[in-house]
């Protein structure tokens, strides 16, 4: 298996622009998670899905952030409009019952 | 929600010595405790995990211990090597899913 696949690996954008991060979970995994990692706040859970349904979005910082999972093999995290404080590494991860959490390689977002 | 505290934040050890990282958790219902290793610029990767029905688990040079009564668990790395240098994260959850992570420990192994 190719593991959790995220794109792009790096994203540089200007403040105010829309940013879309993409994730393909491991086949057969029915849980998908979006994490954000910064030096100041560490690894923060933003939202997670089970069977494509959002279960807990309490970690989403504000209305500028939204996430979707239209099918079992694809999810997006969108930031609109982006701000410099959104700069971070965003990880997607997936799992299934009895299996540990597997992370993707992350997207490093820089908002200038 | 679950709150996981991790200590120390940085740890420097001589190659060949042991390293110990400690974590405490707040939710007595937590029953799954994984440890992740993250090398610079890379993704966190699971190195070992333990469930609440087990007190200790070993995998070669790595071991994890769990004290449910005190709500703390520890990672032990023996005979450290330069490739053990990384950031280590502990985590806790009820079940396998919504993990709460500690702040991380940066381990440096000096040659």
Write up this protein:
The complex is a heterodimer of chains A (112) and B (111). With 112 residues, chain A is mainly beta. Chain A contains no helices and eleven strands. The mean pLDDT of chain A is 95. In chain A, the strands form two sheets. In chain A, strands 2, 4, 5, 6, 9, 10 and 11 form a seven-stranded mixed beta sheet that branches. A four-stranded antiparallel beta sheet of chain A has the order 1-3-8-7, with no helix packed on it. In chain A, a hairpin with a 6-residue loop joins strand 9 (88-95) and strand 10 (102-103). The radius of gyration of chain A is 13 Å and the shape is globular. With 111 residues, chain B is an all-beta fold. Chain B has no helices and eleven strands. Chain B is globular. The N and C termini of chain B lie far apart (41 Å). The model of chain B has no long low-confidence stretch (mean pLDDT 94). The interface between A and B is medium-sized, with 19 and 17 residues.
Main beta-sheet strand count, sense and barrel state of chain A: 7 strands, mixed
Q: Which structural class matches the secondary elements of chain B?
A: mainly beta
N→C terminal distance of chain B: 41 Å
Average pLDDT of chain B, to the nearest integer?
94
The proportion of residues in beta strands of chain A is over 45%
> What's the number of helices of chain B?
0
Radius of gyration of chain A: 13 Å
Class derived from helix and strand content of chain A? mainly beta
Which chain pair has the greatest contact?
A-B, 19 and 17 residues
**Care to count the β-strands of chain A?**
11
Strand tally of chain B:
11
Biggest sheet character of chain B: 6 strands, mixed
Number of helices of chain A: 0
How helical, in percent, are the residues of chain A?
A: under 10%
């Amino acid at each position: 298996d190719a593991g959790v696949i995220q794109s792009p690996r790096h994203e540089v954008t200007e403040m105010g622009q829309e940013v879309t991060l993409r994730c393909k979970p491991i086949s057969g995994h029915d849980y998908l998670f979006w994490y954000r990692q910064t030096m100041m706040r560490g690894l923060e859970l933003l939202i997670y899905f089970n069977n494509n349904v959002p279960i807990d979005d309490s970690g989403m910082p504000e209305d500028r952030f939204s996430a979707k999972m239209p099918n079992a093999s694809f999810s997006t995290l969108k930031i609109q409009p982006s701000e410099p404080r959104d700069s971070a590494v965003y990880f997607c991860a997936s799992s299934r019952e009895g299996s540990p959490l597997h992370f993707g390689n992350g997207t490093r977002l820089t908002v200038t | 929600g679950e709150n996981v505290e991790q200590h120390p934040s940085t740890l420097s050890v001589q190659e060949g010595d042991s390293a110990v990282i400690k974590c405490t958790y707040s939710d007595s219902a937590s029953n799954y405790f994984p440890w992740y290793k993250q090398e610079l610029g890379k993704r966190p990767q699971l190195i070992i995990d333990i469930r609440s029905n087990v007190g200790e688990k070993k995998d070669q040079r790595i071991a994890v211990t769990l004290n449910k009564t005190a709500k703390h668990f520890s990672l032990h790395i023996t005979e450290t090597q330069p490739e053990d240098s990384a950031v280590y994260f502990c985590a806790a959850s009820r079940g396998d899913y919504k993990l709460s992570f500690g702040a991380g420990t940066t381990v440096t192994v000096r040659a």
